[in-house]
Amino acid sequence: MLTNINIFISSILLTLQELWSHRLRAFLSILGISIGIFCMVSVKMMVDSVERNVKSSFNRLGDNVVFIDRFPWTQEADQKWWIFLKRPMPSYQDFKKIQEKVQSAKHVAIRGIMMGADLKYLNNTVSNLPIAVPTHELADILNMEFSNGRFFAPIESSLGSPVIVLGNNVAAELFPNIDPIGKQVRFMGRMVRVVGVLKREGKSILGDGFDDVALVPYNYLRRYTNLDGETFRPLLFVQAKDGVSIDQLKDEITGVLRAERKLRPTQEDNFALNQLSLLTSLLDGIFVVLNVAGGIIGMFALLVGGFGIANIMFVSVKERTGMIGIKKSLGAKRRVILFEFLFEAIVLSIIGGFIGLLLVIGLANVGNRFVDAFEMVVSVQNVYFGIIISVIIGIVAGFIPALQASRMNPVEAIRQNF
Q: What is the tally of structural domains in the chain?
């Protein structure tokens, strides 16, 4: 056991000595490995970061919500868009019927979007603001959190009271260093009362946060305009009761909507029942393609780096042929010689891998300074991935030179020094 430890330590020292003696050659050899690891891990890091951001945005909705729209959230929407475009938009009447007749629904909400609105408080104005126009149930479905105040009360939602909820950034811009709760802001020429400020969500790659949005009750804006039109992009949210499967909920919604829209048995549905799993499955395919693309680019660089390490190892074996002969004549076994050169190749590759990982970490730090949509994080799994790939490349690139060195005849090897 002690002998093996001594051999291992001496192999490490010899390897480091050889690398230091041929610094330029070693650097050129590991450069390809560094570039390859950088390409593979950086793409994987960015894809993982985007995927984590997207799924965290989805998670707040849960997997028990059905979204009713004209278009399905599948590739079919691109293939048959002209058919789906003729479908009627989800309407307030649809919302009321589902709320009344779908027994398996826990919450039902409708939401419209009004673009380009202005809000004003004294001399402060926020222009070109998107206004979400939901019923009060949306807060329960989306699990909205508040830094101050509350959401619309059911009575305020039903009566269409002149109240408003502000996104965090909107509140900060309209009311710097002032508590906005209870204040009156001007919206569409009328005064509405602030009842709540949403908790800051931060940037999202989907752009679906409420930081830069204000919300007014659906029935309030419905007094002044037709929210069922395409301009307001109405969307229905239906959340299943506890213990109710999503398929059961969809079947019940289908029956109610078909009856409400007076569709004959032979007619196809003129609405789409979407759920998050449709989007996540579509995005999973995109993420796989991006990972494969990054892997292919990285593999070409690793291939060049692998050949570089193999080349330096063949040269190293050639230069140390006499030393190999002396070691073998003194009783060194083949596996010791094999391990010595194989270990040197692995060390070269790991050094290249660590340099590549440092470049990825640098990319993440720089990227986070300029990209607000999502945070780039080099996960522990990505670090392990880079190290494992480096070790594999080192083993593959160094095995044949190491095997060649271990099989040398000691007498012929020593003669080459003379």
A: 2
